[in-house]
Design brief:
Strand content: 25-35%
Helix content: 10-25%
Number of helices: 6
Radius of gyration: 15 Å
Strand order of the largest sheet: 2-1-3-4-13-12-11-8-9
Largest sheet: 9 strands, mixed
Length: 196
Amino acid sequence: MNVVIVDTECANLTSVRFAVERLGYSVLITDNAEKIRAADRVILPGVGTASAAMRNLQRKQLVEPLRELTQPVLGICLGMQLLTSHSEEGDVDCLNLIPAKTKRLRDSGLPLPHMGWNTLQPTADNPLVQGNDSYCYFVHSFAVAVDEYTIASSEYGERFASMIRHNNYFGAQFHPERSGKTGEALLKRFLELTLC
């Protein structure tokens, strides 16, 4: 199994790599388009702002290679938001791989960013999470609205998409690498996933 983590230059790449290695897989962190294309699984992590991450992907000439992937791809946190068509964070066009939009979380009197543990409510067709009340670790101020691409949702002043999917592209708003047994199980299912 050839697992690649895309080097966006704005992520805690090491913690994601360690989480995958703990499952028994070797991992390559790279921004080489050919190595990304050749991977069996691609993980797109992200911490920071959508505008900075998209600038990095454009500078590295990775936008088109990422759009052409046919193997399972998992976007984590900001990486999930980069899969959408547009982000209000910096008013930037993203990869447009999942036709959804990322918007600032509404000020509902709760602290922002949304930081800490929260539960997921996965849909019945979510292949990566099974069972309700799965606790995961979140850090974000922007979120994707619940729509037909949502495969899990969470509540923080409003309901938002905590996981999204379109074809071979999956997104997790939370950090699986920091989400204990739930995150470990999600990564394992992603790495073992067979797309129909």
